[in-house]
Amino acid sequence: MKILFKALLFAGAAALSMSASSAMALDKPAGDPILSITGHITQANAGDAAAFDLAMLEKLDGRKAAMETPWTTGKTEFAGPYLRAVLAAAGASGKKLIVKALNDYASEIPFEDAEKLDTILAVRMNGEEMSIRDKGPIFLIYPFDKDHSLYNEKYFSRSVWQIKEIEVVE
Amino acid sequence: MNAGGDKISDVLKRASLRAAVLQGFSVLLLVILIFLYMDMSDRQASLQNSIRENAMWAAFQLDREAHDLETETRLALARTIVEPGQLKSLARRYDIVYSRNDLLSQGHFQGFFVQSGDLSAASIAINQIVKSLDRVFTGLEASPDPRARLDGAIPALDALHAETTKLVLTSNTVISDNRAEAREALIRLQKTSGIYVILLTLSVGFLIFTLRRQLKAVRQAGLGFEAMANDLASAYHAADAGNRAKSQFMSTMGHEIRTPLNAILGTAELLQLSNIPDDVRDNIQTIRSSGEALLEVLNEILDYSKIEYGKLEIETRPVNLANLSRSVIDIMASRAKERGNVLMLDMPDSLESSWIKTDPTRLRQILLNLVSNATKFTSHGTVTLRLREFSGPNGRQFLRIEVQDTGIGIDAEGRKKLFKPFSQVDASISRRFGGTGLGLTISKEIAELLGGEMGVESEIGKGSTFWLEMRVEATEAPETAPPGERPTGLSMLGALKVLVVEDNKVNQQLALRFLERLGQKADLAANGAEAVQAASATSYDLILMDMQMPVMNGIEAARAIRNGDGPNKAAPIIAMTANASDEDRDACHDAGMDGFEPKPITLKRLHGVLSDVAERSGIKPAPMAQPQAEAIPPAGDGIDAARKAELVEVLGEDIFEELVASFFTDADALMRDYRNACAAGNVEEADKALHTLKGAAANVGFKAVAEVAQAIREMPEAGIDRSDRLAELLASYTFNKAA
Question: What is the number of domains present in chain B?
């Protein structure tokens, strides 16, 4: 019952956000674009891609959480928009996402990781913007703090950092 | 049985050994399980620890980024003009290398990269080079001479690439080593686990096997126990049967001896009354006193066998202690006098009218025994029977009865033996005073059955006090006092002279006992002819006449007496018969008889007849009373309980049993007569036998026998032998009696 209610709520929220975003076209980024969503999207604002600058990303619904990761020492606080919020803003729909890094490292993740998990595109570490040296500008963070069963190699390899682009695949 | 016992003990010994082994194995099993669990949890922990980012991949990525940085730098230098876009790209590449290098020193990788000396050295070198290159790539676009900067960085970039390559190779080696070690550890773990599992399997198998054996042993032991229990039960039954047989034997022998002894004593008494020389009379007195002593011994043995057999029954009735005590004093008076003793009754007046619930027969027996002992061991002294009532705890009423004598006394040693069976104070006592030594044992047993206690206080040379204390329950006086306790009204009228005409031995005894009980003296005639003869010689106040008798029957005898010139021409003649028909009554009247009493005669009706005769000087016909026995239905076993109770009450249980015994003797003879008469076709004789049997049976309360006998008499074709049913009935009583 509770699950069903949650699912309905989620579906409603998703539909609402989608209709909202389709009603208002995605603005062009005012600052330096740091992320582009390509592929199967409806809200392109830079050619075929939806480009986001830091301000646009930080405006979206997101979360801030402290957790341990294999790539940091001690508890580290990450903050950024939910992946599903970013995808919704871009009008993305599909089965999987190809997350690409600055060094052309790429990882395929299922679309549902965005929907069912509170995955965020972290743009701040311990409150600071992330430089490339600090694995910035964008770091895909799984909610290791909420669900310890995620803490394994499968999700480590999906945790891409220095993200520059996400390709949405049908 | 012994073999079975050994077997069981062996089985149990083996079973307990197995149980010990079983316990040992269970402990072992537990230890193995603990070890296995610890191993598993270790493995679990190590698996948990092994969750980490792929170090090899990190090293490889760093190497690749270092290579790309070096290549792109060389490409930029190869161009004549270095473009700003290229510079920016180079700066970003450096940033990526920087971030990759940073990663090596992060928490989860650090552990890996410091584990071998080579790895550690490489990662330190790499870190130094990357940090040194910071000067080159930071602010590269804005620098006045980027080319010079890049040019100067080439050796460092080469060195970096060389180090990262070394890092990859070393990492690979270390990881391979680690993997091999991990595999070995895993195999080791699996091996030990395998061993544990084998041990576990073996242990469980052994447990199952041992448990099976154990169960088998337990079952075997159970069967053994069952067999043993059966053996014991049958041994017990055998022993019990032996004991029963012994008691039965004692009881039978006692009765068998007592019957002729009674005859001897009776004859001796009769002899004493006849006209004989004094010295013979003394001899006869010796016979009598010896016989009485023998009778006492017999009675004690019989009582003891009953007690031992658990057959001594207590019947409680309302009892007046004053009367009971006086009767004891009366009975013992003559014996006390013989030894020059004074017998005293010390009793509070309150006891005169109070009634308690107890067994009068048994209580009297105890008192008689104690007073008898006291007189026996006292000469020219005083024996006091003392009764006291007192309240115990919780307001209960208690009775203390003391029998105090001034006799020889008993020492402490003797007092200990006093209440033990067959023991007397010492052997000289039994020589001097005789006795079985059972009297006190029996008294004590009876006292306990009555819910009391018995004891003795004594001092040598001063005398002894035997006491009995028991709880008593006050009760109402019965409406009509039982005959045994009734003050005999008849004795006030003076003794009557009664002639009993009766052929049957049992009935004779009964009539005599009843009359004796009512304080009367009676003569006996065994048939009509004898009666006529006796009546012609002596004047009687009352003649009790049986109807059917050999030689001359009652009707003929009565007619002869009435028609004769003897002193009894007008004496009351009462017919006693089991025949209650009107014809019989008419015949009685016609013969000149004055009354008619149906058999069996009861004490009450006999009392009525006697008081009628005594009170009225004139001769009136006695009322034609209906048989009272009919009012009381016989019990299910065909025994008239009321009749039996009366007989036991009046005669005492022992005499009643004698009566019953002599009834069976008579019954056997009568049955024989009946069969012979039937065989000979003599209908009259057969009927006579049945008639006599009926009367005798009714007398002792065997109502069913009496009814069956009467029914056979009334059947058509009287000559047919119908003795089977009777014989069966009689046999059932004999059996009951034996049981």
Answer: 5
CB pair distance less than 8 Å for A162 and B96: yes
The mean pLDDT value for B692-718 works out to 79
pLDDT > 50? residue B484: no
Average pLDDT score over chain B: 79
Average pLDDT (B232-259) is 82
B219 with B71, same domain?
A: yes
Residue B486: is its pLDDT beyond 60?
A: no
- For residue B498, what is the enclosing H or E element? strand B497-501
* Domain interval for residue B268: 245-291
Q: CA B544 to CA B554: how far, in whole Å?
A: 10
**Would you give the DSSP letter of residue B351?**
G
Average pLDDT over residues B192-200: 85
- Any bridge partners for residue A132, and if so which? none
Q: Does the beta-carbon distance from B95 to A73 stay under 8 Å? A: no
Q: Do B370 and B508 fall into the same domain? A: no
Pick the closest to residue A17 from A28, A30, A26 (CA basis).
A26
Least confident of B23-37, B88-102, B324-338, B504-518: B504-518
Q: B623: helix, coil or strand?
A: coil
Alpha-carbon distance A51 to nearest alpha carbon in chain B (angstroms): 20
In a domain, B390, yes or no: yes
Residue pair A65/A78 in contact by the 8 Å Cβ criterion = yes
- B463 and B506 part of one domain: no
B583 pLDDT higher than 60: yes
The verdict on B98 and B195 lying in the same domain is: yes
Neighbours of B21 (CB within 10 A): 15
Q: What is the largest CA-CA distance in chain B?
A: 195
- Which of B51, B53, B95 is facing A133, going by the closest CB pair? B95
For residue B449, count other CB atoms closer than 10 A to its CB: 14
**The domain spanning residue B473 has which CATH number?**
3.30.565.10
B583 shares its domain with B666: no
d(CA B602, CA B544): 13
- A35 with A86: CB under 8 angstroms? yes
pLDDT classification of A110: cutoffs 50, 70, 90: very high
In a domain? residue B720: yes
- B552 class by beta-carbon count within 10 Å (0-12 exposed, 13-18 middle, 19+ buried): middle
CB pairs under 8 A between A and B: 48
Q: Which residue of B has its CA nearest to A162?
A: B96
CATH of the domain at A13: 3.90.420.10
Q: Which residue has the higher pLDDT, B289 or A111?
A: A111
Distances (CA, A) of A162 to A53, A104, B63, B297, B680: 14, 10, 17, 128, 143
Q: In this predicted structure, what is the pLDDT of residue B290?
A: 84
- CA atoms of B87 and B162, how far apart (whole Å): 23
How many domains is chain A built from?
A: 1
Closest CA to A88 of A56, A123, A42: A42
**Residue B494 to residue B515: CA distance in whole angstroms:** 13
pLDDT digits (tens, 9 = 90+) for B445-457: 889 888 899 999 8
How far apart are the CA of A127 and the nearest CA of chain B, in angstroms? Answer: 19
B273 and B190 in a common domain: no
User: Looking at residue B675, what is its pLDDT?
Assistant: 85
Q: Which domain holds residue A161?
A: 2-169
pLDDT at A98 over 90: yes
Say if B5 falls within a structural domain. Answer: no
User: What are the angstrom distances between the C-alpha of A42 and each of A90, B97, B692?
Assistant: 6, 36, 136
Please indicate, yes or no, whether residues B270 and B165 belong to a single structural domain of this protein.
no
Residue B49 maps to a domain: no
Q: Is the CB of B52 less than 8 angstroms away from the CB of A70?
A: yes
Q: How far apart are the first and last CA of chain B?
A: 31
Phi-psi region of A31 (alpha: psi -120 to 50; beta: other; left: phi over 0): beta
Q: Is the pLDDT of residue B158 over 80?
A: yes
Least CB–CB distance from A102: residue in B54, B92, B109: B92
